[in-house]
Design a protein that fits this description.
The chain is an alpha/beta fold. It has 10 helices and 5 strands; from the N terminus they run βαβααβααβααααβα. Helix 2 packs parallel to helix 8 and helix 6 crosses helix 9. The chain starts with a strand and ends in a 16-residue tail after the last helix.
Length: 195
């Protein structure tokens, strides 16, 4: 594992994944990947159910991980891959909340069939693990408080020399410094701008 993403989904993680692929730290595993690899969802479902997961073996072949898949276990991954930088993707909390409510939260409402059952279960774990339930995200102050506390926890726990706090507007530069690679001579891949 070359890069560990500790930021929650809807913080530019799709752009981050594409950028990491371009910088040689791919393939990058993110929530979106599960649609093409629903068998990977079983790893997080098993972990959520209390099973031990050999993350080194399970994630072999993936060179970076972002989105909720990275943030849930970022401390474990940081211990397993002590040389990998930790990237904390951030977004303004109110914008993040509006994006979540207008997208993934609606798509994963009880009874949803948006994804194969194992993938949908992982998506629903976002609400259970990080917020205390799907309905708790309806409470704006509660959800934003959870978001802010998570990111502050990463800042407090991750050694500063290993942590890069990044927003999509910063583009390539912080990521290239973290990976010690040259900046590409091309525009940064800003994806999902609509949300």
């Amino acid at each position: 594992m070359r890069v560990i993403g500790a930021g929650w989904g809807r913080t530019g993680t799709t752009s981050l994944a594409k950028a990491l692929d371009r910088l040689g730290a791919g393939p990058c595993l993110q929530m979106e990947t599960l649609w093409g690899h629903p068998e990977l969802a079983d790893l997080w479902n098993a972990h959520h159910d209390g099973a031990a997961v050999d993350w080194v073996a399970a994630l072999a072949g993936w060179n970076s991980i972002v989105d909720w898949l990275g943030s849930w276990q970022w401390e474990t991954y940081a211990r397993l891959w002590p040389e990998a930088p930790v990237i904390l993707s951030l977004r303004e909390p109110d914008d993040w909340y509006d994006s979540v409510r207008g997208s993934i939260h609606q798509w994963t409402a009880p009874g949803s069939t948006i994804a194969p059952p194992p993938v949908l279960r992982v998506l629903q774990q976002v609400w259970e693990v990080d917020f205390g339930g799907w309905d708790r995200v309806l409470d704006r102050d509660h959800a934003i408080g959870c978001f802010v506390r998570h990111h502050q926890s990463v800042i407090d726990k991750c050694p500063p020399d290993r942590l890069t706090v990044w927003t999509p507007s910063q583009g390539w530069a912080p990521l290239c410094r973290a990976l010690d690679v040259a900046e590409p001579d091309e525009p940064f891949p800003h994806l999902n701008r609509r949300s």
